[in-house]
Amino acid sequence: MSSAPRQWSKKSLAAQALGHVDPVTKAVVPPIHVATTYLRDPDNQYSSGYVYGRPDNATVREAEGVIAMLEEAEAGALLFSSGMAAATAVFGALDPGDHIVAPTVMYWALRRWLSEEATRWGLKVDFVATDDLDALKGAVRPGETKLVWLETPSNPLWTVTDIAGAAEIAHAAGARLAVDSTASSPVVTRPLSLGADVVMHAATKVLNGHSDVIAGALAGAKADDFWARIQRIRSGNGAILGPFEAYLLMRGMRTLHVRIAAQMANAADLARRLTAHPAVAQVLYPGLPKHPGHAVAARQMTGGFGTMLSIRVAAGEAAAIRAAARVGLWKRATSLGGVESLIEHRASIEGPSTPCPPDLLRLSVGIEDADDLYADLDQALRQG
């Protein structure tokens, strides 16, 4: 008598990209489908399920399947040409006059888009410290607020918002909750299981992990009218990810679990050591017990506290910029989540409207040797 099929872990399923084997060649790596058009059946139907390359693609579907599995997304996942394309599709699914609540501290490009572009389309936006649930509740307008947008941990201060608490507030007001989980990843946090309606990833970052793909992803809790509208927006706006990029993303996700485990171990080690560094005034990292959001992070993040941290340089802005100029192993570059460690003076990037302190350096921790990473920072900081 045969036993029931085993329920494989997410780690195993991601490592094998859901175990797909090409039916023609028996290859264990799915092929890249680049076709833009597909043959009709003699009865004028499309029994293959594919009509044209703008709204759909087989390679994209493969990668979406992995993300949907990782996020436990009942509605599935949708891949976009960038994280911004994914995020703005969610806001585009709203109606003119709808009210949005978003974090004061969030990805700067999206914050700027909400401030400058969303309002031109008739959306109303208020920014609030979403890690303060009382402040969030006060900002939500029952019957008028249609979307609460969170980013947790938030870039680049790494504040933590209670997703379950925010979901309760949003739903009580008749709003949906969307969570930018880019800095966390579904290995660490699954917002849908905590009550979110939509989760967004700049898949360029942790999901891909190799700094060679621009991509965005959405995963939905329920296949409702709102989700269907997002699907139509992607198709109508031509915002689907290309097949080669989808293939690279899927390849990156195969090593997601082992990459992020190594990166989180390095980040935790660096955060502890930098806390005692004489040139560092403050370390911003949810894994530190003194972090204001540590208790919430410990409850909703599993296996670690992410791959990101920031430091505030005691001697101020000029010293921070000098330190970033003196590193060797760390690379001065924008982005995060890759296997290479990156350092950046964020205020210079974000401009005068940034909530980022001018003495802050953002650190995206890779898979290099932790002692090497610390030694490189140490010598750069000690030169003053």
From TrEMBL:
The cofactor required is:
pyridoxal 5'-phosphate
Please provide, alphabetically and separated by semicolons, the GO molecular function terms listed in this UniProt record. Answer: cystathionine gamma-lyase activity; pyridoxal phosphate binding
Q: Name one GO biological process term.
A: cysteine biosynthetic process via cystathionine
User: Sorted alphabetically, which keywords does the UniProt record give?
Assistant: Pyridoxal phosphate
| Top-level lineage group | Bacteria
Q: Sorted alphabetically, which Pfam families does this protein's record hold? A: Cys_Met_Meta_PP
The N6-(pyridoxal phosphate)lysine modification is found at 205
Cellular component annotations (GO), alphabetically ordered = cytoplasm
| Similarity comment | Belongs to the trans-sulfuration enzymes family.
Protein name per UniProt? Cystathionine gamma-synthase
